Amino acid sequence: xLNFPPVMWSGQEAMETQHLSMRGIGKAFSGVRVLDSxxxxxxxxxxxxxxxxxxxxxxxxxxxxxxxYAEYEGEILLGGQPVRFRSPQHARRSGISVIxxxxxxxxxxxxxxxxxxxxxxxxxxxxxRARQERECAALLARLGMEVTPSSLVGDHPISVxxxxxxxxxxxxxxxxxxxxxxxxxxxxxxxxxLFALIDGLRRQGCGIIYITHxxxxxxxxxxxxxxxxDGKKIGTAAACDLPAEQLVxxxxxxxxxxxxxxxxxxxxxxxxxxxxxxxxxxxxxxxxKVDRVSFQALxxxxxxxxxxxxxxxxxxxxxxFGVHGRxxxxxxxxxxxPVSLRRPASALREGVALLTNDRKTTxxxxxxxxxxxxxxxxxxxxxxxxxxxxxxxVGAARGHAERFGIRAATLTQPVETLSGGNQQKVVxxxxxxxxxxxxxxxxxxxGVDVGAKHEIYELMNRWTSAGITILxxxxxxxELLAMSDRILVLYQGRILRExxxxxxxxxxxxxxxxxxxxxxxx
Amino acid sequence: xxxxxxxLAALLEMPFTRALIALLVILALGVLFNADxxxxxxxxxxxxxRHISRFGILACGMTIVIxxxxxxxxxxxxxxxxxxxxxxxxxxxxLSAWVAVPLCCLLGIACGAxxxxxxxxxxxxxxxxxxxLMVFARGAAKFIxxxxxISQGVETPEGFQYLDFPQLYEFLNAKILGDNVAVVTxxxxxxxxxxxxxxxxxxxxxxxxxIGGNESAALLSGVPVGMAKVLAYAMSGLFASLAGICQAAQxxxxxxxxxxxxxxxxxxxxxIGGTSLSGGRGGILLTLLGTLTIGYLEKILxxxxxxxxxxxxxxxxxxxxxVLFQRGRK
Lengths: 522, 330
Fold this sequence. Notes:
The structure holds two protein chains of two kinds. Chain A contains 19 helices and 22 strands. In chain A, the strands form five sheets. In chain A, strands 6-9-10-3-11-12 form a six-stranded mixed beta sheet, sandwiched between helices. Chain B is 73% helix and 4% strand. Chain B is globular and about 80 Å long. In chain B, strand 3 and strand 4 form a beta hairpin. In chain B, helix 3 packs parallel to helix 8, helix 3 crosses helix 12 and helix 3 packs antiparallel against helix 13. In chain B, strands 1-2 form a two-stranded antiparallel ribbon. In chain B, strands 3-4 form a two-stranded antiparallel sheet.
């Protein structure tokens, strides 16, 4: 690695080898150091994985590169030239394209308007729509996407929107493409298409910085891997020289024992029974989201819900929590007694809690303190007669913070100041605080680093041994296989297959999820 | 040393400290431009407080609504409507305060609850729903008053008559504690106290913060979102009606045109205090400081005989600087 900046004004040669080079990058927020003289370089035509636990400083590094943070220590060389991005627009014009975890599309605008947003083809202020749509169509075709450029972004499912985001990033002459967990809401076949796209970019000479928490992805596409921990760079290595155990050790600073360790604890008692449960399509389409689903779950059991995106798992969990567009039909029994779960409030009263798959938009009140987020769902307990007892709240929050291992300076700080893993633990603490009988977990480890994932698995074991029943949705197959006592695979809203513990393999679950058993499907 | 400077920096980040500094800056201006010592006399301060109280009362309700992620444009019109109704009940009908005040309050609560119900039940945007109520309530005020001011002087078949001035208005107009504090100021402080209890100590207050911060997360946490919203707008309506009674007392008449554009002053007070217009953040004590800041600003300009034109332009400039200062450098 270079310890000295390359000679200036020799950009041409430098570009061949050192496409992008960030050296001595440092950044502190109100006295707290989040990045400490980090060196990072990217070659043309490589996929460089940026790995590290949540809070390791990956996002900060990317935001500096993207011009979001204009004040930082150190310097950035792009193609050998020193640059200092003052704004995201500036970075973008210089060839840095960032695909953020949260999509940055305007839902009410057309696909082509989104793709050219900020760089419209215009003549004397008039947007040349026809030309944009033509170029957009060509671009989409090149990416193998069948999307009409004039259609509205908001009318497409989230996975297509993700691809549009990538098209947007590629519409400019991107020299560096940054992808921050691009697969977090993609289904398996869409991930394959994304990887094909990345391959195309690589061959065009783009440098790609890729952030992910998924181990399989890292070894599928990585050329090199750089690991950050606690704001410092731990090392950079070629992917073939860095075995997975070593990578994990770099990330967490300690070797992880077995990544998954489920101690089954289902007792004989039926906790939850669902009979002929259907959830109609909220838009009124004839095919229901969940179609006559029946199953039983024992106390202390973890039932994995398998299936591709859109197979109805999320809708099933939401409807069991009383969140639905149109009233579901069928019967639900808790400990043998029929219950009606019309609204979240009534579900909570019955001891059902739902962890949604998006903690920022539906899980947390980001501006509220850690303590208040934790007590929000069980507020009546902390306010007898409507009168709040802050002391009782703080006591409970302290207990949760300790049990969940939440790392925060104080419990009065807004939850938005925490890293993703710690935020997730706050949401989990909130639901646990309601003393649930049934816990519905939709992607409990999404956007959470390896160490925190492990802690969440341990917590799940602890809860089930206390008799809580868990329904689990996860897009990470190894997690589903390892943590579930039984797996129900949904396909088009119906339970297509049920696997007992140890019966399922990645292949058999995926086959069922893709509807293979139906015969006439390809 | 480092620790102390960090703690100081953290203190300066707090909205309350910033609102306090803004107020102190305005007070320093008052000391600087004291208009030959007028600023140092207590009655200057008493009159400022008396004048700003009605706006402060409106701002209390506005704070509650804004924290819940909404906005209430109707408070000025509801003030006008209740001023008219209050004058009608107290002056023309000669009802006792024990009847007139509760009736006016009920009217204000009903107006607010109506807006809240439109917003919660039919998902009409707060801006639109309260804009509609603003227009409607103004119309109602004109309808009830017949477009004329409701005052002591009335035409009867026997000729012009001069009615008694109601005891309620006399009481509200009085200055107590050795002529040092206006009663309407005490009404304002009472409203601040009630709002503080609601927002900081009662469960529905916590619900309002959660709704303003993230409505879907609040709903999924079992918060009764609809009820809480209706409560917020009803409180705003209640405070608007109290302000309306005070307005009628101070003007000794019920003017159907009273309170035009007061809602904008109330919003300015809330924003200058540092409560976020996007909801979920802020508090009533910030609004108390914001009320004093706006009140003193106007008073200092008026004792220095700055004309209305200059006053308005300066107030606009100060609102922007206060908000920029509140946001600070990030």
